[in-house]
Amino acid sequence: MLAGKRILLIIGGGIAAFKSLDLIRRLRERGAAVTPVLTRAAEEFVTPLSASALAGEKVYTDLFDLTDEAEMGHIELSRAADLLVVAPATADLMAKMAGGHANDLASTLLMATDKRVLVAPAMNVRMWEHPANQRNIATLRGDGILFVGPNEGNMACGEFGPGRMAEPLEIVAAIEAALADGPLKGRHVVVTSGPTHEPIDPVRYIANRSSGAQGTAIARALSALGADVTFITGPATVPPPEGVRVVRVETAREMLEAVQGALPAEVAVCAAAVADWRVAQESQGKIKKDGKSLPKLEFAENPDILATVSQMTEGRPTLVVGFAAETDDVIAHATAKRARKACDWILANDVSPATGIMGGTENAVTLIAEAGAEDWPRMAKDQVAMRLAQKIAEALG
Ligand code: C5P
């Protein structure tokens, strides 16, 4: 499975670095070539000689090594690999990645690469839980960085909790998953998800009910099939998937701008529950109760993202997919909606409260296309997402 693949393995400075030597061995057993890079701190835990002997390759440690630069520049080094793996990823190394630092070889390679990056964090439990570290992790996830671990357990420092680096075989499995050639490999897909919030004043807003669960599941399924996903989400309650590019927005207008900024794409899936209207004049100050009159809100119509993308005359995605959440006459309304908005497919679903679909884990949809309607049985939102992703892969051929 890993035959012919090249892994650039960045070893950070932590006690778990000894496990990375075993990781090199496991990767080579599976046919991968490994280029080890040691940070300055890593050299306190393992030697370049051990890493080089196990990899059967030259080890890189220094950004300003003139011989290395002459043989292979650091930019080329960061791109010659199929995947960059950081194991152990220390709190410091992840902080550098989140901050965009490039002040040593490891951080420079991570900044310069055009490949996916998988990190296997390892640190003391308090460091793992520290808000600064959690902030950095959220940033890295948002940048599409993949994670494996950390695991929970006894730590070298005598404490217990999350922070142990994933075992070498778990890291191998994550590497295999990251390198799997899915049918959507190399295809750019934009997914909108979650609600939008339309401010009335600084403390109040109007919105649709939406957990973002279905859109998140769709992005995850598309990514699992190898797609390069840009996930544009309003303030949803479920966290975004890993391994995708996340763009967070608040309002419908911001969502449209983010979608337009993310194009070109071969596919657009509009799963967001966009508010149809916004308040025409957002109040800059909090609207006060004066005990006499009630405030009057005037509405303005929001841009329709699905219709805008579907009706693009230049650079329209090959396939544009929308949703139709209806409470009555589902198929008739959804069919009309497909025609009105000019999208290719509509996934219609009945969201009347009795169905329990809104905010729930299951969905029952009908796929409406030019060729007609196809009823899908009620199933988990994750399964709906995978079925849709597979159908998209088939359609693109
Ligand atoms: O018109 P309606 O809101 O029912 O249409 C639902 C579909 O249109 C969904 O795919 C939704 O993401 C999309 N939509 C949009 N922009 C809007 C309203 C809806 O993209 N302003």
- Can you list the ligands bound to this structure? cytidine-5'-monophosphate
Count of extended strands: 21
- Enter the CATH topology name of the largest domain: Rossmann fold
Query: Averaged pLDDT, please?
Result: 92
Query: By helix and strand content, what is the structural category?
Result: alpha/beta
Distance between the termini: 24 Å
Number of domains: 2
Question: What's the CATH class label of the largest domain?
Answer: Alpha Beta
Low-confidence stretches: none
Strand order of the largest sheet: 12-11-8-13-16-17-19-20
Please tell me the CATH architecture of the largest domain by its name: 3-Layer(aba) Sandwich
Largest sheet: 8 strands, mixed
Number of helices: 14
- Name the CATH superfamily assignment of the largest domain: CoaB-like
What amount of the residues lies in strands? 15-25%
Explain this structure.
The protein has 397 residues and is α/β, with parallel strands linked by helices. It folds into 2 domains: 6-179, Flavin prenyltransferase-like (Rossmann fold, 3-Layer(aba) Sandwich); 188-396, Rossmann fold (3-Layer(aba) Sandwich), CATH 3.40.50.10300. 34% of the residues lie in helices and 25% in strands. The protein contains 14 helices and 21 strands. Strands 12-11-8-13-16-17-19-20 form an 8-stranded mixed beta sheet, with helices on both faces. Strands 2-1-3-4-5 form a 5-stranded parallel beta sheet, with helices on both faces. Strands 6-7 form a two-stranded antiparallel ribbon. Helix 13 links the parallel strand 16 (319-326) and strand 17 (345-350). Helix 1 runs parallel beside helix 2, helix 5 packs across helix 8 and helix 10 crosses helix 14 (381-396). The radius of gyration is 24 Å and the shape is globular. It binds cytidine-5'-monophosphate.
